Structure formats: C-alpha cells, structure tokens
Amino acid sequence: MAKINILEPNVFNKIAAGEVVERPASVVKELIENSIDAGAKNIEIEIVDGGISFIQVTDDGQGIESSEIRKAFLPHATSKIKDADDLENIFTLGFRGEALASIASVSQVQMISKTEDEASATFLQINGGDFVEEKQIGAPTGTQIAVKNLFFNIPVRRNFLKKPKQEENAVSEIVSRLIMANPCVAFTYICDEKIVFQSSGTGPEDALYAVYGSNVLKNLIPISGVSGETEINGFICKPNAAKPNTTYQNIVVNGRYVNSKLLSAAVGRVYEDYLMTRSYPMFLIYINLPNDEIDVNVHPNKLEVRFRNQQAIFGAINHIVDHALTEFKQQNLSIDNSRVHAETLQNYAQNQNFNSKTNINDVIFKMPQQSVGEQVAQGGSVEISEIVLESKPVSKNTNEQFFNNPIEDPVALRQQKELALDPESKPEPVFQKFLFDGFSKNFDLLSIKVVGKIFNTFILVEVEDKVYIIDQHAAHERILYDKLINALNHKEFCGQILLVPIIIETNNVEHQFLLDNISSLQEIGFEIDEFGSDSFKVSSIPRYLPNISVNNFFDEILKDMNTILNLKVKDLVVDRFAQTACKHAVKGGDDLTKEEIVNLLETLAREEPQLQCPHGRPFVVELKRYDIDKWFKRVV
User: Fold this and answer.
1) Which terminus of the chain, N or C, has fewer Cβ atoms within 10 Å?
2) Angle 83-88-90 (CA atoms, 0-180°, nearest 5)?
3) Under the phi-then-psi rule, with left for phi > 0, alpha for psi from -120 to 50, and beta for the rest, what region is 572?
4) Same domain, 613 and 470
C-alpha cells in the first residue's frame, strides 16, 4: 500500500495555484479585486508581454500594516472573513485567501504597502514562495505589487501559456469588465508602455466611454427599476445598435462582474422582436440585492453566482428592460414621422434637380438595411447621405458582356424578381431524375436541339432520346460561382480601392481577433490596417465582391469568432460568393434570346460544372423518351 504523505507548503501552494492562477489574466483579476476591497479610488495596472514577464498593480487603498504583510502571503490568509458564518454575508470581491500565496509560489513578487498611520512603507520580496527580503522604504499610502516571470519555476505550465498578444487580450477583457463593474474607481491600464483604458471614476457613462468609446455611448437607453428588495439599473442598447456577438453584454451583481446565461437570456428575450437572427443586444446592467439572496462561492474564479430565486430575478430584468424599450419606441413614434421625413426626402429631391412636377411619393428610394419607418421605430435617425436612388434599368447587354464578364459589368437591366422557389411544389419523382451523372459528358453541342423555353425560366434541350430541363438562373449562378472559386483557389484577387475608407470599430476582444487574422483578409484583397487601439481602417475590398457591405461582412466574421480558432480564406468568402453569383445571374422570368441560351449551354458543356447551384438546388432534370411514352400509354 502506498504511503500517505503530508505535502509541504511549497508543494500544495503550487497545486492551489493551478486552481487560482490559470494565466496572467487570473493574476490581474485577483490583484485588482484586492485593491478594490482595500477601498482604492485610483488603480493603475501595467503589464509587459501580455503579463507573462511583468504585472504591476498600484492603488491608493488603505494598505497593509507592516506587522501583517507576511501573513498576506500565507495559505488561507484573508482579512475578508473570520468564520463560516461570514460566508453567508460576503461583501468583498476576494475572500478565499489562496490568491497571494498561490501567485507568490509560481512567480517573483515584490510588494510595497503603507497604511495612513505608518511613517514608512514595507517592502517585501518573495521568489517562488520563499521570503527573500523585507525592509522599510518611503512610499505613499496604498499598495503596489509587482509579479514577474509567471510560472518561472513550473516550465510545463509556462509552456502552456499562449502568445503574449493573446494573453494581453485576456487581461484587457478582465480589466474592461472591472472598469464597468466599478464605475466610481479611476483606472489606468497600460500594455507595453501604451495606455489602453483610462477612466475617471465618475460613473457608469464614463466607464462605458473608457471601454467602448463615444459611438457606443450615444446609442444607449438607461434602465432603472425596483422589484422587492432587488434594485436594477444600467443601460441597454437601441435596437439598431445591436452587436454581432455577446462580448458587449455585461452584468454586475452586488459590485461583482459575473457571467450568467440566465440573466443574458432575460434581456435577449425582450429583443427577440427587435433584432435579426444572430444579432445580440449590448447592455451593462447593475443588480443589487441582499447578500443572503445569492451564493458567490460557486466558481473558483468567482465569475458565476447562484440566486436563491432565479425566476424572480429573470422576471424583474425582463420586465424592466421591456418597459424601457417600449417607452423608448413610443417616444420616438410620437414624432410626426411623415412630416419630418417628407421634408428630408423633398430636400434631397431638390438637391438632385428633379423635375418640379415629380411627385416625391413616386420616387423609389433604397434605404440601408431598413426602411425610414423601421429606423425611426427603432430609435434611429435618417441622414440625407444615407438615401440613395435606385439605378434605373439600362439597355440590354451584349451576349459577350452578359456571360463572359458578368462581375465586371453587373446585369443591372435584369431587375425583375426571381420567381419564388417553393421546395414543396416539386413534380412527382416519376417525372424527373435529379443530378444525372452523364449530363456534361453526353452534352455534345452538335447533337443537341434547343426545343424552347417555358415560363421564361426553364430551357428545354433535346439530346437523342432524352430531354433536359435546365433552370436558367441556377445554371448561370453555378457558372459565376465557379469562376469566383477558381479565382480564389489561384489567388487571383486584387483590391478595389474605396473612395472613402470605412472604419470598423471593435472592442478589445474583436480587435485582437481581427489582428490575428489580418493576413487572411489581406490575401483576398482587403486593404485593412489598425486605426487606433479599438478600430480598423478598410481602404480597399476584393474586386470580385463589388457590392459587398463592408460592415455586414465584418459583422459576419465577428459573429463566429468564438467558435473558430483561425480564419481560413475560403471560409471568409465562399458564402459571399454564393450571394454574389445569385445576385448577378440571370433571373427566373428573364426572357433570354436564342444567342444567350446557346452561350449558356456552350459554357455548361465547356466547364462541366456540378449540377447544383451554390445553395444545393439542382439546375438540370433529365426526362427519357421511354418515360414520356409511358405517360401517354405508348408503351406498357
């Protein structure tokens, strides 16, 4: 039987460090929370190499007495609780007592601390859990702790750390959360000698501005309400300012930043009728309730809490957010929309020198994503620069332009809507054979006979004892899609310079994600560069995506950033290629000339494409003479 050993402090501290100190971000979180618990009003955080080489947190809190400073680094030492009864009424952020001991056991730590009543500060140095030096020095009231060379004595753990930029990203996320959770504390956050966040501690608006900037701040709706002993306040976003992911969702419970799917769902439920699929509301919600109504000792990192009455909290948040959104919508609808926007459109029409007899209601306008009414209902404002006249149909292109160079010269003349495709209205299987394998091989142009077309949508081709029914839109869509994919595979992309660069604003998580994948974007024709600490400038777009909405394209990328590790070039654009091909292909209902039909058939025979459009719908059906004879009882 194996002997049972009593572990030495230097061993079990390293084991405890695995639970408390996962990475530099864990260290930063513990140190900042200690500063907040010490009553600090000003906190400065500085890191180097993502916190791997150096972390320093300086505060103006109450400090630690000289006689107590060594105790702070002993296992299970804490000033936050005395006995088990205190666990029922926890007001502080850090309380477990392992943090400093664990951090010191896996790094080189220097602490300087002074209380208001002491004449001098105490300097303490610890290397790998061993006390090295203690002395008195001059310093202001408060505490400064520096953590160097994290995991220097545990190489295996150090090797599992990510690249400095990725670790920096994790630290930035933690700091941003703590800034918003403590809006009355002034924070300065420095990475590699560069200020990233700086707040003045004057309230939630200042905290939001420090983290997200002014554009986010101007699109917020304040919320406030009381349900029993629970007080809820904060901000939610206007529906037209939703985000592509959930990284803008922030919940603070009794001063503690937490992750809660329950509370996020309570807000999301209200927005279901306002947002498109896979768009998410941004919010910062503060919840204050009696301490005996929550359990904060659920998760080692204290990022989760358990509520005594989850249903009541869910209902309270849902009701308060719903009330705020409803009130906001009503206030905006109370404006005389018809008068305001009629004047806006009339001014635009006059600027465009329309004929004085032109009725403003007869002019067709194309709004970006939403109609005027929808934008006003959702709290948006309509600028004249956002209103663009739709292009009028132009004369029919030549066959060469139409089929051989469709992307460079989009088929603007074909404005008719594509016939609706109802998957339930397919013919009976006896009349069709999908995906005939020998179509392209047997498609000898010398032996075919174009019988005609039906509904200006389907081309009928007779070949020997068979008839092929070809969907003109789906077939042309496949051809265009394959051209784009071929250009992608052979890296034949070049950029199309934008007249005015587009600025993509991001939070720190999104910023790092795009920075990690910027080479993939440049490879396909985007000219994109960092534009400050929280945005990117897009100066050109891929030539083969001329009508792309840059903002929507990047929203799609950022929606999936939590589920993919690295962007692949094809993953970025293949879906857009399908949309582009669909938009530029001939439509169902277009009256093709004989020459255009022959041109399409020649391309199909030459390219031998898959017999499906990019969305998976077949574009050709084969009917045999024998099957037709059976319909009419010519054969039994």
Assistant:
1) N
2) 85
3) alpha
4) yes
